[in-house]
Amino acid sequence: MSADRLNSATSPAPPVSPTSPAFWRSPLRGPRLTALLGVVLLAGVTLLFVTGMLSYAAYNPNLAGGVNDQTPDKGLLGFYLFDWPTDPAWLYRVTQGLHVTLGVALVPILLAKLWSVIPKLFALPPARSVGHALERLSLLLLVGGALFEFVTGILNIQLEYLFPGSFYPLHFYGAWVFTGAFVAHVVLRFPRTLRALRERTDPGRGGPQRTADDDTGLVAPRPDPPTVSRRGALALVGGGSLLLLATTAGQSIGGWWRRTALLAPHGGPDPGSGPNGFQINKTAASRGIRPQDTGDDWRLTIEVGGPGAPPGGSGRRVRLSRTDLLKLPQHEAALPIACVEGWSTDDQRWSGVRLRDLAALVGLGEQPPDVLVESLQLHGAFRLAALRDNQVRDPRSLLALRVGGEDLSPDHGYPARIIVPAAPGVLNTKWVARMTFGEW
Ligand SMILES: Nc1nc2c(c(=O)[nH]1)N[C@H]1C(S)=C(S)[C@@H](COP(=O)(O)O)O[C@H]1N2
Ligand SMILES: [Mo]
């Protein structure tokens, strides 16, 4: 150990404020640590952005009337929207499972990255030039945006009622603000990051870095003696991240792995056992569905909407009881439910009537159009959902009456619910009362 370092380790430090570089003593900080964490975040955040934007597209936000759209003022931000496919059936399980699992697992990396650059938050003067002021402003958006996206995302999967109805717009617009700042940051910092990754200026890898050639302001000018190597610190952060990954991923992988999902939200109602024994999102009681609404008097109304529909149209509107529906050709489809919250079920064996067969009942046999599905549920989100024509036409898209060979339980949508391949759970409307094909 050099005399200089021995000295800095033993003499009492004079009082300094966080605005002084000498206040920050960790020998771990330096361009290399920041760069390593930065490239992990670059890959991770890019994947979060892509899967997040896919999730928005999967909601069919651009269908007529915007019934599914939680961000109607998106304007140009919806430029990329496309028709969400119905294949493969596990598509949304994977994209949204990735989005949520990755978001949770990146938390330690994000915190470590912020820790690694915290001296810069306090650096004085606040702005040396207009350019410097703009750069700091963009960092404010970057850090604020990152914290905002992670906090809203995690609160939504853990306690969704914190933002009644406003989670989607907050998380969506926040994502664009954050991404704008993120792209600017990556472009500005990429050369420095590459340089830091290539260079090995520090002796013995884990040791303190030389301040002399540090133009980043990250290296402590008077470092404390190291208590852990940089490798050790990275292993700690990476280990924390892997631990979160391992205790979250099971809710999306399903099967045996479900029991490893210790961190998945468990506050939901107990689904019980048997064919209906899989995760329940909202119970019938909690949505105000009373037993008398779903008894023998329940009828499903199917109609053709829009100007083309004759008023009170004979033959263009039918009302069916559950017994009527059970007399129609029954089909089976093995499909999962995949929620925006990241959890998904294994494939369930649903059976019921094909959506396209229901369209044919109101004279829309050949190429059935989009459909608006309405629930018996009178209030709250998700009582309405619009499905696109490709979803209506898929032979696996059902108005399900049974699951796993048993009648649907009240909590899973008895007397009838929608199930569509590859779609987010929110489009699988429970307690269906009315379906309007065409325009509405
Ligand atoms: N009427 C109605 N249908 C609904 C919902 C709802 O709140 N009301 N929740 C949706 C959501 S967000 C999901 S993930 C699935 C969950 O279905 P499950 O409870 O049968 O697992 O139902 C969907 N169908
Ligand atoms: Mo959901």
TrEMBL record:
The chain crosses the membrane at residues 33-59, 98-118, 139-159, 171-190. The keyword rRNA processing does not apply. The keyword Transmembrane applies. Keywords: Membrane, Transmembrane, Transmembrane helix. Residues 199-230 are annotated as: Disordered. Residues 292-437 form the Oxidoreductase molybdopterin-binding domain. GO terms for molecular function: oxidoreductase activity. InterPro entries: Mopterin_OxRdtase_euk, OxRdtase_Mopterin-bd_dom, OxRdtase_Mopterin-bd_sf. PANTHER family: BLL0505 PROTEIN, PROTEIN-METHIONINE-SULFOXIDE REDUCTASE. This is Oxidoreductase molybdopterin-binding domain-containing protein.
